[in-house]
Write a structure and sequence with these properties.
With 189 residues, this protein is an alpha+beta fold. The protein has five helices and seven strands, in the order H-H-E-E-E-E-E-E-H-H-E-H.
Length: 189
């Protein structure tokens, strides 16, 4: 192992400090985003957790159709802020600015992205018809990294949860914990 030099190390030789920083930043964005199941994407509105794939230097998303994730404010030609968190601790790893591009249905880039996205889409009721449904009813977006930062934020970045129909309307009954504990105990009979 000591006698071999990795391809990445060869590329890094001869770079100036700014070039080296840029190359390492791009590598961090790629590796962190590839390994993360969800990324937080914020356009003009609040940030949302979105599932994605990383393919050939960019993140791809599908949404805005029935039963798919919402992509509000992510318009073709706009920019978005992408926050990538650690899978194990949930801490923020990197934030990067992305150029948003909407892929035209059935274009070569769209077909490649959809083939990758289809494999990652969980719990789809129509797995075989999914690409055609996405072409008719959804948008496929490419988020290409433009700029990145690893600086720590100055505030906690806590936010009020977005409204959802999956919200508990009332507090849980006080006796619920005791009922659940009683049920999980083995009977002494």
């Amino acid at each position: 192992m000591y006698g071999r030099v990795s391809e990445a190390a060869v590329k890094l030789r001869g770079m100036t400090d700014p070039q080296l920083g840029q190359a390492l930043g791009q590598a961090l964005v790629e590796e962190a985003t590839k390994k993360s199941a969800l990324i937080w994407v914020r356009g003009p509105g609040p940030g949302r957790a979105l599932w994605h794939i990383w393919h050939k230097g960019a993140t791809y998303l599908v949404g805005d159709g029935p039963g798919e994730q919402p992509l509000p404010g992510l318009a073709d030609g706009s920019t978005a802020e992408v926050t990538v968190r650690s899978k194990d601790k949930g801490g923020r790893l990197v934030v990067w600015t992305a150029a948003v591009a909407e892929l035209p249905p059935h274009s070569a880039d769209w077909e490649t992205a959809v083939a990758e996205l289809k494999g990652k889409r969980l719990n789809a009721p129509d797995a075989e018809e999914m690409p055609e449904r996405w072409a008719r009813e959804c948008r496929v977006l490419r988020l290409t990294p433009q700029d990145m930062t690893t600086d720590l934020p100055s505030d906690s970045q806590a936010a009020v949860p977005l409204p959802t129909v999956a919200t508990t309307r009332q507090p849980a009954p006080a006796s619920l914990g005791r009922l659940l504990l009683r049920r999980s105990r083995p009977s002494g009979d």
